[in-house]
């Protein structure tokens, strides 16, 4: 019972949540053998009998009996005079088995054994946690905010495991307080030494993809497939979806009546604007859909270099480019093409100057409009000298503007 009493004195083992008794006793034997090797040089001649049901173990050392004065290795050999103290009828050449008590190994042995055991149990727990979350990479987890730091939010899951949501993996509008519930995707799981570190993300494309699975039954059931997701977190996203059932409209099913289905996803992402697009293997049609809401006049594809020249009416250019260029940027990422947009104008057709706001600064446009030049041709009809005399613009600026305007009619 002495061994059991010592083992039971390791209080933290009694409440261990991540390990069953059988596994605990196996780890205990491994830790004990490690300590025996340190003390005796080898554990090959030791038998350790573990009883998981009782939480007890026995330690037996087996030594060959030799004549007195002929002991060369005290760990593997025992003098006859000592052996007969264990069993009176022992003889030279026989093997003597002697039970060892932990308490007889000394306080230093027991403390070292305890420390080694705690370390091995922690390593076991860490390996279980690492495998658990490694298998969950790309899946959504829900946890509670435990601590908010300047560079990360510390989250605890239901098992009180620590999860980390770094600042750069948070949506710009995210704001959390202690006790808040957070949903995020497991981005990756690393090992720092032996400790697993679980990194979450709310900016990862997989987060939006998994939200579609959670919120839209047809996606969860596999009737609709999310083909690709591209995002500018907190600002805009494009999601290409496809249905293998002609009876299902994938875009309509994802958006819902008056946006009812996608509204929860938009709210979760801090009002991120989400364009849902019907996927197709036709690159030209996919580009056209990706640049929505702009209406495309024509597209010239260079499939070898993955480039697309897109022609639009002047009033559609700004729609294709989008605010801060986000629409065309995400369309390029979604389709895999580098997209260039061009205004599609006839020689006899004029273009409002405001349609060039993506290339000409607004204050320059205002300067031309102040002298009655509202369109491209009205600027080109005046000479550089006349424009210099009638505006406060520099000659270089005027030349640059005229060059941009001329290019539209030379296409």
From TrEMBL:
Record's keyword terms, sorted: Cytoplasm, RNA-binding, Transcription, Transcription antitermination, Transcription regulation, Transcription termination
Major subcellular location class: cytoplasm
Any GO BP annotation: transcription antitermination
A single Gene Ontology CC term: cytosol
Stored CDD domains: KH-II_NusA_rpt1, KH-II_NusA_rpt2, S1_NusA
GO MF annotation terms: DNA-binding transcription factor activity; RNA binding
Keyword Lyase tagged: no
Membrane listed as a keyword: no
Gene that encodes it: nusA
Subunit structure: Monomer. Binds directly to the core enzyme of the DNA-dependent RNA polymerase and to nascent RNA.
HAMAP family for this protein: NusA_B
Name recorded for this polypeptide: Transcription termination/antitermination protein NusA
Family: Belongs to the NusA family.
Location of the protein in the cell: Cytoplasm
Known function: Participates in both transcription termination and antitermination.
